[in-house]
Design brief:
By secondary structure, the protein is α/β, with parallel strands linked by helices. It folds into two domains: about 30-130 and about 235-295, Periplasmic binding protein-like II (D-Maltodextrin-Binding Protein, domain 2); about 135-230, Periplasmic binding protein-like II (D-Maltodextrin-Binding Protein, domain 2), CATH 3.40.190.10. Helices cover about 40% and strands about 20% of the residues. The protein has helices at about 5-30, 30-40, 65-80, 100-105, 165-175, 185-195, 205-215, 245-260, 260-270, 285-295; strands at about 40-45, 50, 55, 60-65, 85-90, 110, 125, 130-140, 155-160, 180-185, 200-205, 220-225, 230-235, 235-240, 275, 280. Strands 8, 9, 10, 11, 12 and 13 form a six-stranded mixed β-sheet that branches. Helix 3 (about 65-80) crosses helix 8 (about 245-260). The longest helix has 26 residues, at about 5-30. It is globular.
């Protein structure tokens, strides 16, 4: 049998198998709103300890700035899908698994503290930016650490899979600082590591460091220092290739921002006492963020 006939017979034999695979492919490509409408449930990714954006208090009560914004999107989805009793399934995510869980459809919308990076845009889609943070350091007031140069030869802490981890490791290599870098799974683990004295400083986004400080045993003993190493554009995250769902999310955020409704949400979480300890971050809105709310966009800073 010549090669041409063998190839034709092989293709003919494989045809049924290929047909069987078509429904699976179609299911993967199912638009998010159609998926939500059919199941009458939307899957929301949240962070367990990212105070004050997305965290858990009490008996699995998911709260925070990101979650309040996400609730507005859920209301818009209920209206769009004509599902007034749409169920919400909350799924905890981490820095390591958040992108895969969005990509495979386990999570429809991630509402945490994810930075919109150009490198990530090939993997997932991002909403309009809803917050801008800067990467700095949390350290004890008497540690002697005032800026990043003071970290040479010291043990430093960050979170796995974050922009801060990438920056810190590059800095260590390029400037030959001989730092020992510890990467925590989340903020709860990071706070415990820092308070134990295993690291002299914790590098992450300034506003999240303020949240970590508020949960320490003695918040007054800690301070946020250092020249900002990057600006972080926080956005909601969803699957790529679904323009209808992305448009609904962006339209919802734009309405919040342009109407001024987002100002009240911001004040609630960043300028007022928040659960569980009643800490007030006293983190006034920056001019950069106010300008962004006036002209919403999804541009990454890197």
């Amino acid at each position: 049998m010549n090669r041409l006939k063998l190839l034709a017979l092989t293709c003919w034999a494989l045809a049924p198998a290929l047909l069987l695979l078509q429904p699976a492919a179609a299911q993967i490509a199912q638009p998010t709103l159609e998926k939500i409408r059919s199941a009458n449930v939307i899957a929301i990714g949240y962070r367990e300890t990212s105070v004050p954006f997305s965290y858990v208090v009490g008996d699995k009560d998911v709260i925070g700035f990101s979650q309040d914004i996400c609730s507005k999107v859920i209301d818009a989805v209920r209206a769009k899908t004509n599902r007034p009793y749409l169920q919400v399934r909350f799924i905890p995510v981490t820095s390591q698994n958040r992108i895969p869980l969005v990509q495979n459809g386990t999570v429809d919308l991630e509402c945490g503290v994810t930075t919109n990076l150009k490198a990530r845009q090939a993997q997932v889609a991002f909403s309009y930016t809803f917050f801008v943070a800067a990467t700095r350091l949390l350290t004890r007031k008497d540690s002697g650490i005032h800026d990043f140069a003071d970290l040479a030869g010291k043990t430093v802490l960050t979170n796995q899979g974050t922009t801060s981890e990438r920056i810190l490791r590059s800095m260590n290599l390029e400037k030959q600082m001989n730092m020992r870098i510890i990467s925590a799974r989340d903020y709860a683990e990071g706070r415990a590591t820092l308070e134990s004295g295993r690291a002299v400083a914790y590098m992450m986004d300034d506003v999240l460091l303020a949240g970590t400080r508020s949960l320490t045993a003695k918040p007054a003993e800690w301070t946020i220092v250092g020249t900002p190493q990057s600006s972080e554009a926080y956005a909601l995250m969803m699957r790529n290739g679904d323009p209808e769902f992305r448009q609904l999310v962006d339209d919802t955020l734009a309405a919040l921002m342009k109407s001024g409704e987002i100002d009240a949400i911001y004040k609630k979480w960043l300028e007022s006492p928040v659960r569980p300890k009643g800490a007030n971050f006293q983190f006034p809105m920056s001019a950069q963020l106010r300008a962004l709310y006036a002209a919403p966009n999804d541009r990454a800073f890197d």
